[in-house]
Amino acid sequence: MLSTSIQSVAKQLKNSKISASELCDASLKQIEKTKSLNAFITVTSDVALKQAKESDQRFLNGMTRGDLDGIPIAIKDNFCTQGILTSCGSNMLSNFLPPYDATVVSRLRDAGTVMVGKCNLDEFAMGSGTVDSIYGPTKNIWGSNIPYDVTYKPNHKMSSSKPKVDPEDWRIAGGSSGGSAVAVASGSCFAALGSDTGGSTRNPAAYCGVVGFKPSYGLVSRHGLIPLVNSMDVPGIIARSVEDVTLVLNAIAGPDVNDSTTLKRKYEKVSLDEGVNLLGLRIGIPKEYQNTAIDAEIVDILKKTASIFKECGANVTEVSLPHTPYSITCYSVLNQCEVASNMARYDGLRFGIRGDVTISTEQLYAETRSRGFNEVVRSRILSGNYFLLKRNYEKYFVKALKVRRLIKNDFDSLWDSNFDILLTPTTLSHAPKISEFKQYDNQTQCVTQDYCTQPANMAGIPAITVPVGLSREGLPLGLQLMAPVFHENALLRTALWLQQAVNFPQLKLKV
């Protein structure tokens, strides 16, 4: 029941073969069975059971709210949820109970979904491994000690995991939305919200063998998403299929009076019914995305996928995005400048924890932030403030804005040349072990892990990662598709075609 698609389980709910309460109960039990992965910070059992009972009543009265009614979902713990802990994985907000719901949360509630919990993340979403949360790291279900089968449709078993994993050297989940990705991959929920600033939805989705989608900037409201980098943050969606991602997108997208950056025109729902005509579809493969650090298996699967598109009529061409090598440095400067600005609100006076030393405002601020933030957050604040000093402002911040414009212009030139889609790697390898990941500091890992994903955030364009195969070690490999801004229809239809063409195997737990 928990391993099927949203549309499939929605039919069972409508036909009264199962109830929303039964589905919710199964989801909560799955969360308990997989709690060693640490995907959740807060399991909202009482809220979920109440929402499930309300859904049952709607089905009984013939007043359902669509395919998402009664469907268990999870929320990354940097989206505000009224009266429910929203911690950002940080000691700073370890006591924060928001007085309102984020817009995306309220829209999912209006669609009838059942919220089973809040998911783990790197502190304030600053990371690419979900290893820096005060609640501990999230572990990948793939390659874990939890037994599972890997099957291809129609249920042909390929392999079965034999748990012989060093409990101290597990595979990372990716980040910063690692909890959301693991919650979906483990079958604890059908979909989850993540946030995506430089790849924080797509990176963990690729590592965990699920679909991760970043919409165009302005298509989905950021109201209630605790900000990291306002000019790049977008709510993201993680699910096990493109169809499920599309259902969630159609529920949460559209204008919001509480977010001035959202598109003002009425949102037209994405339809996958028409499919995509590959004949004549122009797909570009940017040569700059295959840098020296990329694993040979990623290059091989990229070539194989390009061949699949070619064989079915698409025009696949190598293209150039010449400013890509400068993108990650530009992103790092802008990220830290906006972080410095956004973190200024945590002063110990208005919300969050409060320092004990109150003999001066400066000492209160200092103690509050020293206790509340980890080293990663404090270092980004320090760097951002340095870049924003009067003597450095033009040298770093303004120059980074100019480079960002050049990066966006690179994409625009390809769209103007009638390219429809770009095909790139999502990550440079399969999910590394924690011992490998911790060989480098947080900043170095973000520079490496976000290399292929953050340019889409710089340009504000939609991007999606689709799992396309397994590595020699039996771990997921994903590829990324990008499209022009607000071309979600074409992007999701192409992603659906790719999903069907590669037939990625399904992970089924044996617990």
TrEMBL record:
Active-site residues annotated for this sequence: K76 (charge relay system), S176 (charge relay system), S200 (acyl-ester intermediate)
Subcellular location(s) per record: Mitochondrion
Any GO BP: glutaminyl-tRNAGln biosynthesis via transamidation
Record field: catalytic activity: L-glutamyl-tRNA(Gln) + L-glutamine + ATP + H2O = L-glutaminyl-tRNA(Gln) + L-glutamate + ADP + phosphate + H(+)
An example molecular function term from Gene Ontology annotations: glutaminyl-tRNA synthase (glutamine-hydrolyzing) activity
UniProt KW keywords: ATP-binding, Ligase, Mitochondrion, Nucleotide-binding, Protein biosynthesis
An annotated GO cellular component: glutamyl-tRNA(Gln) amidotransferase complex
SUPFAM superfamilies named among the record's database cross-references: Amidase signature (AS) enzymes
EC number: 6.3.5.7
Protein origin, superkingdom: Eukaryota
Amidase domain segment(s): 22-144, 171-492
Top-level class of the enzyme under EC nomenclature: ligase
Recorded family membership: Belongs to the amidase family. GatA subfamily.
Assembly and interaction partners: Subunit of the heterotrimeric GatCAB amidotransferase (AdT) complex, composed of A, B and C subunits.
UniProt function note: Allows the formation of correctly charged Gln-tRNA(Gln) through the transamidation of misacylated Glu-tRNA(Gln) in the mitochondria. The reaction takes place in the presence of glutamine and ATP through an activated gamma-phospho-Glu-tRNA(Gln).
Protein name from the UniProt record: Glutamyl-tRNA(Gln) amidotransferase subunit A, mitochondrial
Species, as recorded: Thrips palmi (Melon thrips)
